[in-house]
Amino acid sequence: MIKNAQFYVIEKTQAKNLLTEAETLACDLAASSWRLGKRVLIACETEQQALNIDEALWQREPEEFVPHNLSGEITTYATPIEISWVGKRNAQSRDLLINLQSQIPDFAVSFKQVIDFVPIDETEKAQARERYKQYRQLGWQLSTEKA
């Protein structure tokens, strides 16, 4: 089974609605992936980052709404988009992992497709390069695209 990791190279730092460029792009990619029928997990670094993304998804225009929930929230049905953070994740199977964490999450190997980001910040860029190398060592197909 071929596994793909797509890295988006962030070229500007302009934040909107308190989100970084990578976080904003993560929301947009999650929404478009859901519209294609995919079940998405957005893996955040911290609970606060997850709360910010949750709030940003709620603030979208009504026609751009995407059903989502934070890990650990009680829902009658699993939502198509779950927002997790380090140490907190539901067990539902998902098609796409959107990684905002500084490391590759342990559970990434259970996905066929991962989206990751290369920020402008030099420290974060170095972490992204390390994740890229690790995916390559795991035998993943890698691609990069400018955001």
Automatic annotation (TrEMBL):
Superkingdom of this protein's organism: Bacteria
Gene Ontology molecular functions: DNA binding; DNA-directed DNA polymerase activity
Gene Ontology BP terms: DNA replication; positive regulation of DNA-templated DNA replication initiation
PANTHER family assigned to the protein according to its UniProt record, in alphabetical order: DNA POLYMERASE III SUBUNIT CHI
Name the UniProt record assigns to this protein: DNA polymerase III chi subunit
Organism: Bisgaardia hudsonensis
